[in-house]
Specification:
By secondary structure, the chain is an alpha/beta fold. Helix content is 26%, strand content 17%. Helix 1 packs across helix 2 and helix 12 runs antiparallel to helix 13.
Length: 738
């Protein structure tokens, strides 16, 4: 089974999330698995049958169900989650409570499935953000679910449009709490404040939910509205056939997963849908939107007036056009509202080198989807993903110790087994040697040096663990695991560590296979101020700047706090005539190492079609140029990274927007105004007719907007402003001198 949460949302066929209700009153199987032993056995059987995820819930959310106490929900769920996770099962916890979510994730849950979308207990969003778990954002309108009585929560005009809009609001709230989009899953909430007709309409429009740009989970199993498929009254367990038929349909629509009470028939339905789609896909485009892995049907970038959240997926290993993403042309075509672009341009349509491709099919549900211009395909760059650091794993390390609460355990050594998973710091995961190329020519980025000094010695970890386990006695193996984790992190070079201590000779009267505890500890890093400059002089310059800012703003571990205005300047250090640049500077707070920030900038440039050719003299034209200018408290002069940027103090197009975004900013300990005062005159023009927007965290001083609406992130100039290319070519002085 998977050990990384984000692996669960990797491209692939529709998955089955199996329901495991440890409740007394669930509508379908309440009481069947309330006993923890029976629950664990059933969960293992569901996984054996092929469930990708087992969803453990300790509180029924059926209409009219009474809430259980938090302590009871914890007692029901956490032991089952821990047992299944220890057995290698990918576990989700079905809860609306922050305390239960925290405890379940600590016990090994990889997903928090919150049917309230964070509305029941808003603190749950931040709690999950502080963990590695994925989060299911569900559509929900409160506990009252009296649909049959026509309650106000079940009244809609256009049910699909309203559910999409409200889901987008909850996605934005999750992002504001610190959850990156790569850890979010959307659930339309079938049956929650919805009539049977509402449920069927949402299912008919299942393709529309891919416009959210997230994997989509559908939970229809055995629900009451499925009774319409039968000509007689049915009990929940009699609706499995209708549920399986619906699974085949949802798989054809590109669903990420279906939440079901059984497994085998749903895997068969998914396989049938896949087989039916294969011939059509082979013939051409007849079924281009059907029966594909969920990630192929979801747009990577979706910006709309209702979803103020910025885009989050920016592929580093392939250009946007090659990924089949929707694109729009030059930002001069955009006036205030994002241009409409819903489907990729037809395959085989030629585009001039460096020119953006255009697709003009409207997006579904009236929500425009906007992507940056496409560019000539660069060679893919394959780099370590910061979310998935390199890991050292030691399994079954044997040691003898005297740990336990009984006197005999304190005097007679017994066998303990220790598993250790240690995540390297991102800087070590990123390598740092010379660039290497794969056999096919793909650039693999900096190669890892073949040197023990460039990693953490697992022999040292092993010796430390065995010595610490044998050096003193602990009453609790939890304490031993905690001390081991702290000592291993103290070695340095590690971002996080997970320690599992097994006690196979525990004094239990009942037969058992193992007793174990798991602790996870992460090293905290200070947040530092980061300065990044951005420039573009090819194609839709403003759109590429917007693309770069949005990519950085949605990078996990990066919080953009300020973005300057847009400035125009002539190219610097170039003999031949090139187009003029648009420039800006953004300020961010980040706990990422400088090397990881540099890798992120390079990956975004690559996604924008930036080609780096060392044979070209001077700076070449580029769609997007991102320079890491300064990181507080860090100086570097390596061949790969120089901090502060050695030429920042010579460039008005960096200093002027930097001063605007950060009036108190300093470069190398010297105020920016002093650097500007020493510069010779450099042509620079502030483009007040252009704007790059990004949703920034609200400041304490900022007053709420009168309308109560959030500004939507968009690509293009402000409403009624002249286009980028219509701007005059003349420049003023680099004025705005401090």
């Amino acid at each position: 089974m998977t050990s990384r949460p984000c692996e669960l949302t990797a491209p692939g066929p529709t998955r089955v999330m199996a329901v495991l209700n440890v409740t007394a009153d669930s509508f379908s199987d309440g009481g069947a698995w309330l006993d923890p032993g029976l629950a664990v056995a059933h969960g293992l059987e569901l996984a054996r049958q092929g469930a990708a995820i087992v969803d453990v819930g300790g509180e029924s959310t059926r209409p009219g169900a009474e809430r259980v106490a938090a302590a009871a929900e914890l007692e029901r769920t956490v032991p089952v989650v821990a047992a299944l996770a220890t057995a290698g099962v990918a576990v989700s916890v079905d809860t609306t409570r922050t305390a239960v979510a925290k405890a379940a994730v600590e016990a090994g849950a990889l997903i928090v499935n919150d049917v309230s979308g964070g509305l029941a207990e808003p603190d749950i969003l931040a709690a999950v953000a502080d963990s590695p778990a994925l989060y299911v954002v569900s559509h929900w309108r409160g506990w009252l679910a009296a649909v049959e009585e026509g309650g106000p929560e079940a009244v809609y005009g256009d049910v699909t449009a309203e559910v999409l809009s409200e889901l987008a609001d909850r996605i934005a709230a999750a992002q504001a709490a610190g959850l990156p989009r790569c850890r979010l899953i959307a659930d339309p909430g079938l049956g929650f404040a919805k009539s049977a007709q509402h449920n069927w309409e949402l299912l008919r429009q299942a393709d529309s939910f891919t416009a959210l740009g997230l994997p989509v989970l559908w939970g229809a199993s055995r629900k009451r509205f499925l009774a319409q498929a039968y000509a007689r009254p049915t009990r929940p367990v009699e609706r499995d056939a209708a549920t399986a038929a619906l699974t085949a349909y949802l798989a054809a629509c590109g669903a990420w997963a279906v939440r079901t009470h059984t497994v085998s028939e749903h895997l068969a339905a998914i396989a049938v849908a896949s087989e039916l789609a294969a011939p059509a896909a082979g013939r051409g485009q007849a079924s281009a939107s059907r029966s594909r892995p969920w990630s192929e049907t979801a747009p990577a970038i979706a910006v709309s007036p209702v979803a103020a959240a910025p885009p989050a997926v920016f592929p580093a290993a392939a250009p946007l056009a090659a990924a089949g993403l929707p694109v729009v042309s030059d930002p001069s075509a955009v006036s205030g509202t994002p241009a409409v672009s819903g489907t990729p341009a037809a395959p085989g349509t030629p585009a001039a080198p460096g020119s953006p491709a255009v697709s003009g099919t409207p997006a579904a549900s009236g929500s425009p989807a906007v992507s940056p211009p496409a560019a000539e395909a660069p060679s893919p760059v394959i780099r370590p993903e910061p979310d998935f650091p390199d890991r050292i794993v030691l399994s079954g390390l044997q040691t003898w110790g005297c740990h336990g609460v009984f006197e005999a355990e304190k005097t007679t050594p017994q066998l303990f087994l220790i598993d250790i998973r240690a995540d390297l710091e991102p800087a070590l995961s990123a390598g740092g040697g010379e660039s290497v190329a794969a056999g096919g020519g793909d650039r693999l980025g900096p190669a890892r040096p073949d040197d023990l000094a460039a990693t953490v010695d697992y022999g040292q970890i092993s010796r430390l663990a065995t010595e610490l386990a044998a050096s003193r006695s602990y009453d609790l193996i939890e304490t031993l695991a905690d001390r081991l984790a702290a000592a291993i992190l103290a070695l340095g070079g590690l971002a996080a560590v997970e320690v599992t201590v097994h006690k196979p000779q525990a004094p239990l009267p009942e037969p058992f296979a193992d007793v174990a505890v798991v602790v996870r500890r992460r090293r905290g890093r200070p947040r530092r101020r980061v300065v990044i400059s951005a420039g573009s002089n090819l194609g839709g310059r403003l759109a590429w700047l917007q693309f770069g800012v949005a990519a950085l703003a949605t990078t996990p571990g990066v919080a953009v706090t300020a973005v300057s205005g847009v400035y125009e300047s002539a190219p610097v250090g170039v003999g031949q005539r090139q187009p003029d640049y648009l420039n800006l500077v953004l300020i961010a707070e980040s706990d990422l190492p400088a090397g990881v920030l540099l890798d992120r900038c390079l990956a975004v440039e690559s996604a924008a079609g930036r080609r780096r050719d060392p044979s070209l003299p001077g700076p070449a034209s580029r769609t997007l140029d991102l320079d890491l200018v300064a990181v507080d408290g860090e100086r570097s002069a390596s061949g790969r990274l120089c901090l502060p940027h050695p030429r920042a103090g010579q460039r008005a197009f960096v200093l002027v927007p930097w001063l605007e975004a950060d009036p108190d900013g300093q470069l190398d300990g010297r105020p920016l105004a002093a650097w500007l005062a020493d510069l010779p005159s450099q042509p620079l023009r502030r483009r007040d007719d252009l704007a790059v927007e990004v949703a920034l965290p609200p400041s304490d001083e900022a007053a709420p907007a009168a309308s109560g609406e959030r500004p939507a992130l968009f690509i293009g100039p402000p409403r009624s402003a002249p286009s980028d290319e219509a701007a005059p070519a003349a420049f003023g002085e680099a004025g705005r001198r401090a």
